[in-house]
Amino acid sequence: MHRTLGIDLGTTNSVTAWIKDGEPEVIAAAPEENGTPSVVGLSGDGALLVGREALNWLERDASRVIATVKRLMGRQFQDPKVQQAIRRMGQGGPQITEAPDGGVLIRLGDHEYTPVQISAIILGRLKRDAEAAVGTAFSRAVITAPAYFGERQIAATREAGGLAGFQVVRVLMEPTSAALAHGLGRGQDADPATVLVYDLGGGTFDVSILTLMPGFVDVLGVNGDNLLGGTDFDGSLADHLLELLDSHGSGDQSLPGDSAKIRKAAEHAKIQLSAASSTEVIVSPLGESGDVLSETVDRKHFESLIAERIETTVDLTRRTVTEASLLPEDIDQVLLVGGSSAIPLVTERLAELFGREKLRTDVDPMTCVSLGAAIQSVLIDTIDCLNCRAACRLDDDTCSGCATPLVGTPTIECPACHVPAPEDTGTCPVCASDLSALVAEHPAPSPSVCGECGEENALEALECDLCGAQLRDSGGLKCPKCTLVNQPGLTWCSFCDAELPVAAPSDVTPRPIGVRTNDGSLVILVEAGTRYPTEQPLRHDFYVSANPGDMLEIALHEGDFQPAERNDLCGVSMYELPEGNTDTKALTIAVHLDKDRSIQLETRLDGASFSRAVFRRNPLPPEFRRRARETNGRFQTFLATWRHELTQAEAAVLAETATALEQVVKGEAPGRSLDTLLEEADELLERQQNVRWATALTYRYPHHVAELMPEEELKAMRSHRSTLKSMREAADFDRGHQIAQEVLGIRRRLGNDLYEVMSALASASHNGVNPALQQRIQTAGDGLTEAARQGDLAGVDAAKSRITDLYRDMLREQAAFQAPERKTVRPEKPPR
Ligand code: ADP
Ligand code: MG
User: Fold this and answer.
1) Ligand 1 pocket residue status of 201, Cβ below 6 Å
2) Local structure of 384: helix, strand or coil
3) CB 339 near ligand 1, within 6 Å
4) Nearest in space to 341 (alpha carbons), one of 331, 332, 351
5) What backbone phi and psi angles, to 5 degrees, belong to 372?
6) Cα–Cα 20 to 30 A to 537, which of 280, 547, 698, 729?
7) d(Cα 50, Cα 66) in Å, to the nearest integer?
């Protein structure tokens, strides 16, 4: 049995939970702590710090600690949200810069990490801690994400989960998850309920209204403030404490770590004040003279400091209700979610708005999102193969259709920069360390422990070997009737046949998804509010007007701005238009959203069969695809031109890179850094071209103009020719490149005139020009040879200048015959 971990990957705090003995249970990372701060840092000596340790390191060196990375997930550096988040992180934090692909890079110490890699480090730690705490391997995960997360943010979340060694079986909306934890949307005969989820966390406020019915969740409205949460309250209280310190203190110079210390004390006091009406704050030593801050803070005063911000959340809540065309009376229940919703002022204000009886505070607001994720993990009845999309059995390790693994890939950690990577990674994607010798730890499958006698039974056993008792924890939910625990994913109790409260909810899209048309505008294919998984693909008709051989680009964007490029890119798929003579073709685009809003795109041109593409991985920014397309174009031309002359070794190396480039052009992310791929491809091609070019020169100069070359250069050319040949056979591109440079050096020394003469004679010798021109070049060439033999210098010069003129004619003629360039076309709207 494969266990699935429920993960609330929070902005400030992450929590894990699982289903134990049929009930959801939070997995405590450490005694007294339900969560792990979503913080990553590097200590002075380069050790990796995650969670509380990293948070503590903030006091020492904030430039090596990254918090609130969730705000950067799946976004471009230029995204105003990212800029805002960076400003919010304030002075002294890590350097955050634009990645070459337009994404975000975070510098910790000597290395730069992507938000996905930082999140993967957090998730990796959560996985290990959870496995150690409960003695069970978690190879799969359900991870929660805010309701407003778009395709790219969800894709980034999945990618981080994958990097951490999980098969991410679902990305679940946080409010839906909270509702599941409150037991909503699970019963078979429950009436629809309208639920407002008020989620005030550490760094964000989200409010959503859901309609829950057995089997699905409708989102009626989502609102929020991405930059408002408990950390602001800590800040306000810390400022207040500082004022007090200034008024009583010695007034001496403060030390770098002081403000972090005071903030920490402020957070502690804030939490105390949720349960007590006043609290003591003591911080020492502070400043150079070791001051002591000792104050009493009462709740009333704290509330006055944060009242305005709480009011903002209440206003947003009210507005969300109004925008959903509802009245507060229409809300059946209000779920309080997020650590900061424990603040009594919050409860008070919401009770005034909705009535106290509607407030649900019975499930711990700090952990309820993770509990819902755990519940979801056992409502899932099949695992989708990431490759062929087949629905597979939960017990399977690999897809029965295509053998793709259905559990996370064991990971290794780079010893230098600590980034996690799949086991078979050769080179670290962050710091290029050699990882080939590292082996991942495969956690041993845990036995089934008998609840009656404590006997450890085999993994798959249903009855205890020793006492015959039913082995209670089969990983699924407890039957409400007979209280035995079932297998995950069942709809009926396997013991008493009672109906199980199984209702994996479906969700609706928060924003529309559209395609970019030829004039750059966006045409919506999937409306906002569409329920997914979609029962059948949503089909739309377009047409394409193009020349045969042109490329058709289908770019899907999420959002509703015009032009299309202002919206987030979900993915791009490229199709080669078939040969044929019609230049206007009918195009059908069909979009299907699966359980976690991954897009399956089907395209049919002129009644031909559908071609499919799936957008699920981190989509590539347009700039990257453009570069990949250009590089790929050069690769293809090169391969087509030299196909018959490449050595086996050369062809193999080129083909490997060409395949990776084609993937990128199709909109798929390659399994390594894109930038490196493009750089390496460019370099490889340049070297190949140089080597090819040099090889040609080593043949042509001696063959066509030997008599015009100094003896030394002629000998060098011939010897380079044989060296290049053996370099090419051994695919020794570095050495080959050096020799090629030397050959090009000789070409320069011999001068341009001789080069042109040689080129013209070489072209004329293999039918590379039209017959008349060929004839004239050959005649001039014969004259040249004759003059050279006779030592007639004036004759040589005259023949040379005749040939260079003919060379120019030849270039003009070749230019006229250039193949027309392939265009990229996009769908056009059908005429009305
Ligand atoms: P997020 O989802 O943003 O990661 P959480 O829901 O985990 O955040 O909430 C973390 C925040 O809740 C922190 O700012 C923490 O100080 C605050 N918090 C936790 N418990 C309490 C409490 N009892 N009273 C007030 N604030 C609390
Ligand atoms: Mg949260």
Assistant:
1) yes
2) strand
3) yes
4) 351
5) -65, -40
6) 547
7) 10
Tell how far the Cα of 356 is from the centroid of ligand 2, in angstroms. 23
Phi, then psi, of 44 in degrees rounded to 5:
-55, -35
With the most atoms of ligand 1 within 8 angstroms of its CB, the residue from 144, 197, 271, 336 to mutate is 271
- Confidence bin at 619 (pLDDT 50/70/90): very low
Q: Please give the number of the atom of ligand 1 that sits closest to the Cα of 274.
A: 24
Q: Which atom of ligand 1 is least distant from the CA of 337?
A: 6
In contact, 138 and 4? CB cutoff 8 Å: yes
Reply yes or no on whether the pLDDT at 423 is more than 60.
Answer: yes
How many angstroms is it from 310 CA to the middle of ligand 1? 14
How far is residue 436 from each of residues 38, 392, 479, measured CA to CA in Å? 29, 32, 48
Instruction: Compute how many other C-beta atoms are within 10 angstroms of the C-beta atom of residue 264.
Output: 17
Contact criterion met (CB below 8 Å) for 372 and 6: yes
| pLDDT of amino acid 667 | 58
Pairing relation of β-strands 95-98 and 531-532? Answer: unpaired
Point out which residues pair with 412 in neighbouring strands.
Answer: 421
Q: Which two tokens stand for residue 636?
A: 């293809």
Cα 10 to ligand 2 centroid, rounded to whole Å: 5
Q: Which DSSP string corresponds to 654-719?
A: HHHHHHHHHHHHTTPPPSS-HHHHHHHHHHHHHHHHHHHHHHHHHHHHHHHHGGGS-HHHHHHHHH
* H, E, C per residue of 221-274: EEEEECCCCHHHHHHHHHHHHHHHHHHHCCCCCCCCCHHHHHHHHHHHHHHHHH
**What is the average pLDDT score of the chain?**
85
Q: Does residue 177 have its Cβ closer than 6 Å to ligand 1?
A: no
Q: Are strands 333-337 and 359-360 parallel, antiparallel or unpaired?
A: parallel
Q: From the CA of 344, which ligand is nearest?
A: 1
Q: How confident is the model at residue 43, as a pLDDT?
A: 93
Angle between the N-to-C axes of helices 648-665 and 622-642, in degrees from 0 to 180, rounded to the nearest 10: 150
User: Do the Cβ atoms of 594 and 582 come closer than 8 Å?
Assistant: no
The protein residue with its alpha carbon nearest to ligand 1, atom 6, reads 338
Report whether 488 contacts 476 (CB < 8 A): yes
Per-residue model confidence (pLDDT) at position 618: 43
- Ligand 1 atom 10, closest CA: 202
* pLDDT of 501: 62
608 Cβ partners below 8 Å, 6+ apart?
Answer: 578
Is residue 231 within 6 Å of ligand 1 at its C-beta?
Answer: yes
| pTM exceeds 0.85 for this model | no
- Bridge partners (DSSP) of residue 26 are 17
Judged against a pLDDT cut of 90, whether residue 201 lies above it is answered with yes
Distance from C-alpha of 691 to C-alpha of 156, rounded to nearest angstrom = 40
Transcribe 139-196 into DSSP letters: EEEEEEE-TT--HHHHHHHHHHHHHTT-EEEEEEEHHHHHHHHTTTT--SSPPPEEEE
Does 229 contact ligand 1 (Cβ within 6 A)? Answer: yes
What SS3 class is residue 295?
A: strand
Looking at residue 337, what is its pLDDT?
97
Cβ of 175 closer than 6 Å to ligand 1, yes or no, is no
Q: What is the pLDDT of residues 737-769, one digit of tens each?
A: 889 999 999 999 998 888 999 888 888 887 667
Task: Tell how far the Cα of 122 is from the centroid of ligand 2, in angstroms.
Answer: 15
Which of helix, strand or coil describes residue 112?
strand
Pocket test for ligand 1, best of 9, 12, 263 (most atoms within 8 A of CB): 12
Question: Which of 111-115, 218-222, 664-668, 690-694 comes out lowest in average pLDDT?
Answer: 664-668
Tell me phi and psi for residue 391, to 5 degrees. -85, 120
Take atom 23 of ligand 1 and give the residue whose Cα is closest. Answer: 271
CA of 35 relative to ligand 2 center, distance in Å: 11
Is the model's pLDDT at 700 over the cut of 80? yes
Q: How confident is the model at residue 161 (pLDDT cuts 50, 70, 90)?
A: very high
Residue type, 300: K
Q: Whose CA is nearest to atom 24 of ligand 1?
A: 271
- Whole-number Å distance between alpha carbons of 774 and 781: 10
